[in-house]
Amino acid sequence: MTELTLTHLLADIPNHPDQPDHALSLTFQAGQMWGILGPNGVGKTTLLHTLAALKAPALGSIELNGHPMTALHRLTLAQQIGIMFQEHQDGFPATVLETVLLGRFPHLSPWEMEGEGDLVIALAALDRLDLTPFRDRALNSLSGGERQRAALATLMVQTPDVWLVDEPTNHLDLRYQVAVMGLLAEQASIDKVVVMSLHDVNVAAQWCSHVLLLYPDRPPIWGAAASLLTQHNLEPLYRQKLAMTELNGKPLFVPVA
Ligand SMILES: Nc1ncnc2c1ncn2[C@@H]1O[C@H](COP(=O)(O)OP(=O)(O)OP(=O)(O)O)[C@@H](O)[C@H]1O
């Protein structure tokens, strides 16, 4: 079973002094769905990039299934860890299908072209995200929400064991917010590790099994979403007064002006 273990980890946030008492020591496990919550600029994206081994930490270490990340081959990391970025860049002109097929890249030998099996996986992902009608369109012609769905389709095609997703509901209308969170929950249910940054505490309350709360001015806390998502913990997180009610047994928070 996949495990990503953080030991006294401190992400290297530019222009921020290192705060060793803010270090993280926790394990993200297969089947869990983690939401990272915190105010703008606290370091959620930087932490996700650190977990993907795209950025060295300021302190501490990360192990994937007991192996230090720094000792793993880039190809192994690319096969096992997938990240969806918050901003989608157009590296080069490509169609939606060509872009999504890039997710197969870590699974191909050098110079090997995608085969029939790869195409089947890519077409299924396009179908799952309602992108089949867009398959031959240029990626840069898609709307923000369509591009977000194309980025998630690419991650599906990569089939990583660890899904790191930066603000998965960005740009999405309400129906696709639910569809995408359902897709991520499905990945957790098949024993993937799912870790995402979120701005919507209600999405976290509805979908996440665990949360990590990153405070700018005090040590982080982490654990079961049901016990940590409280007014007591969230008001100081956002420095915002909140009202709370309940819907279907889950808390529902509303900012109070
Ligand atoms: N290249 C950079 N140069 C200088 N500062 C940077 C750079 N990249 C990030 N930062 C700063 O690092 C801090 C953490 O940024 P990060 O994007 O990780 O925050 P975040 O919690 O994801 O924010 P948001 O909720 O706004 O997406 C911010 O203050 C940001 O301005």
TrEMBL record:
Organism per entry: Marinomonas maritima
CDD domains: ABC_Iron-Siderophores_B12_Hemin
PANTHER family documented for this protein: ABC TRANSPORTER ATP-BINDING PROTEIN (PTHR42794:SF2), HEMIN IMPORT ATP-BINDING PROTEIN HMUV (PTHR42794)
Record keyword Nucleotide-binding present: yes
Ranges in a coiled coil: none
Lineage: Bacteria, Pseudomonadati, Pseudomonadota, Gammaproteobacteria, Oceanospirillales
Residue ranges of domain ABC transporter in the record: 4-241
Example of a GO MF term: ATP binding
Name of the molecule in the record: ABC transporter ATP-binding protein
Domain of life assignment: Bacteria
Record's keyword terms, sorted: ATP-binding, Nucleotide-binding
